[in-house]
Design the sequence.
């Protein structure tokens, strides 16, 4: 008797099983997402090259450099991302409407075991408004992100059922599988001040102050779920913490501070930024609720389930409470060098490193890359870039169309199993 038996008859059931785990979380990239379509098109290499409204999120010191317009802005700059790896939608597309051969599933499971787990994410960022007036910048953004990590045993269960990869039932555990999701909004005010350094060029320093509201949180982590072969039985233990749905989206709050510095001489600019030098964001414990999500099933038809109604946060396991309270924003150190020989060409090389583990920022921990923008004609910027990132590589491209004082842009990037897109429908060119 099969207590659990999922037999993929095509790609669709498997894709649904994997993606559903990701989307089970409530749909956070960096605390202040980039409002720049150009940045994504250049593979997110803009620390030294950012000007105008781009500088608020990338390096506030750049607001004090030469090359900024008197004023610039963008409204409703939207960015989306989705990813599933190491087995992704591209693998499943080859078997749409057809049985997934057992040998192919074995290959997928080998890749998942080599990677340690199957990881998925989906999310969106919306910069409602980002404006710059001389050396001052302001940005209002909202971000939502869901992610899931599925253990290799859990993936085997999805791919082969409790019969096991070799056709023989065996013990499987969901240890360390988790889901997480958050929705936050941030208002940021940036200021940059530049001063002449004589023959050495121009120096600038900047600061961005941020205030973040936490709207929705969902976080769950396996606490010992397992499928046993002898006797045949399943135990599900997956506690989940969520925000109180009646609290009107005020479920977390805190301030953050970014510092930046830049140097400019002739065609060269260098910059460094420390994001979240200080950050006090924290989810409010009295707005969090706990569900135990415990169930037991056996081959003799015995079963029990405990899906409690919402309970106080204090009732959750101590380890789970600590993990939730650590879901803030970690420091990120960025450095870049940009070269601009003519108004038609700019190049930027960036190195970036997140200095802490965990938190709500799920961008790659390490980034090192180069991007460029070239204008074959003044009104048509073409962008491209590439980078090494934790877990693989990122390649990107994009374009803009500038009509007088106004512009629109679109960019697409592929990053280590994820696809990122961004569109800005209305903006004024920051250059």
Sequence:
């Amino acid at each position: 008797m099969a207590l659990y038996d999922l037999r993929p008859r095509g790609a669709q059931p498997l894709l649904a099983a994997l993606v559903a785990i990701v989307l089970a979380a409530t749909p956070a990239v960096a605390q202040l997402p980039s409002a720049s379509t150009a940045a994504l098109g250049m593979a997110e290499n803009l620390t030294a090259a950012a000007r105008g409204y781009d500088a608020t999120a990338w390096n506030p010191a750049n607001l004090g450099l030469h090359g900024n317009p008197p004023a610039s802005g963008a409204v409703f700059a939207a960015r989306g991302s989705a990813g599933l790896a190491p087995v992704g939608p591209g693998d499943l597309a080859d078997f749409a409407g057809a049985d997934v051969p057992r040998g192919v599933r074995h290959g997928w499971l080998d890749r998942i075991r080599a990677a340690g787990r199957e990881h998925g994410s989906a999310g969106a960022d919306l910069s409602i408004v980002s404006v710059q007036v001389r050396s001052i910048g302001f940005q209002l953004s909202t971000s939502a992100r869901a992610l899931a990590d599925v253990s290799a045993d859990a993936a085997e269960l999805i791919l082969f059922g409790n019969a096991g990869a070799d056709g023989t039932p065996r013990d499987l555990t969901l240890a360390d599988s988790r889901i997480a999701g958050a929705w936050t909004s941030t208002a940021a005010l940036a200021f940059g001040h530049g001063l002449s350094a004589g023959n050495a060029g121009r120096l600038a320093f900047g600061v961005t102050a941020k205030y973040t509201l936490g709207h929705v949180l969902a976080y769950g982590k396996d606490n010992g779920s397992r499928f046993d072969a002898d006797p045949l039985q399943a135990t599900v233990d997956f506690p989940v913490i969520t925000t109180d749905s009646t609290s009107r989206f005020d479920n977390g709050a805190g301030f953050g501070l970014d510092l930046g510095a830049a140097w400019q001489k002739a065609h060269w600019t260098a910059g460094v930024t420390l994001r979240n030098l200080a950050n006090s964001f924290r989810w409010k414990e009295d707005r969090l609720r706990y569900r135990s999500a415990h169930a037991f099933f056996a081959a003799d038809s015995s079963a029990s389930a405990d899906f409690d109604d919402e309970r106080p946060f204090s009732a959750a396991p101590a380890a789970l409470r600590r993990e939730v309270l650590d879901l803030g924003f970690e420091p990120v150190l960025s450095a870049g060098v940009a070269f601009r020989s003519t108004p038609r060409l700019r190049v930027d090389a960036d190195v970036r490193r997140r200095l802490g583990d965990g938190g709500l920022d799920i961008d790659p921990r390490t980034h090192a890359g180069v991007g460029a923008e070239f204008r074959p004609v003044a009104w048509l910027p073409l962008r491209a870039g590439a980078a090494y990132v934790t877990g693989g590589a990122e390649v990107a491209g994009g374009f803009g169309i500038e009509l007088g004082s106004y512009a629109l842009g679109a960019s697409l990037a592929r990053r280590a199993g994820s696809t990122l897109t961004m569109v800005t429908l209305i903006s004024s060119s920051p250059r």
